[in-house]
Sequence to fold (383 residues):
Amino acid sequence: MGAIEEEQGFVYVGGRKLRRGYTTGSCATAASKAAAQMLLSGETVGSVDIMTPRGIPLHIPIEKIEIGDGVVSCAVRKDGGDDADDTNGAYIHSRVRRSDEYGVHIDGGIGVGRVTRKGLDQPPGNAAINHVPRNMITECVEDVCGALGYAGGIDVEIYVPEGETIAKRTFNSRLGIIGGISILGTSGIVEPMSETALLGSIKAEMKMFMAQGRRYLLTVPGNYGKDFVRAYPALEGQQPVECSNFIGDFLDMALELDAKGVLLVGNLGKLVKLAGGIMNTHSRNADSRMEILASNAILAGADTDMARRIMDCVSTDDALEVLAEKDLVKPVMDILIPKIEFHMNHRVKGDLEVAAIVFSSEFGILGQTPSADRLLGKVGARE
Fold:
């Protein structure tokens, strides 16, 4: 396994020291850098250093080196740290050769999925290698070319011999990614996600806010919500507590800590699940986004053909585009929002004031529960 510098290789979550890992994107980048170095220098490379988008350096050993006539391939073993997932331990390979066409050209081979639907990071037809890993690979290979005085093109093929088998344990086929896994990673680093430890961390942050005299908490599931809060005038300057996928647990902890209210701000892709009573929104627990949208679209007047089209969508933004064709976005939200309110209230048994604001990155604010305006004025107040 590779190494992250000691002071950055661990994170404390809920009082536990957990080891960070690195993504399939970092693996593909390191393998590509090493293969390019060996191709252009003729010297064997046993390890490489890369810098992740997170700003954390990685020192990664290189394995399974094969040097042929004008081509080099090698691999990096995926290390998920203390957040091992389905790809942990898999070998991510890169095969590199010179190209007559200038630039770095990246594609996927065996075991890397191919995109077949709109709405994902890559367009249909492309290998499921997301844009951040593509940029990482391109930059590292270009650096190698510059350092070794090579001005021609480079073809990079990422492949994962076990990828098709691994993909059967993921949601890739449902998302329209066929034939293998995705090469992912926005930060290059895998953060440990021990559920117990993460809940402890969330609770500790809630306690910190409440120790400042706050009894009304603002929460978001993740980065989309944080970005929305920063840009929303009524929440200017407010710092939300990130609840991740644990919306139900967050409400439980708010009750335990004697909070008076919770304002939840989130993207439809997460919050639509609340309308079906799904209070842990991680896809491994349940992913009924399209089922919920399609059934409520029918209640709002959509026909069965539109419902089928929604069921075939990959993202909720795609589904909203389908609804917009018949001006059904607002009617569907008018049905969904009260259901979100009902299930939040059901969770807290009426002992906590709760509200939600639902938005889309493409369509803006989609709706809010009746108590949202009241809580907007409360979340920044101190007692």
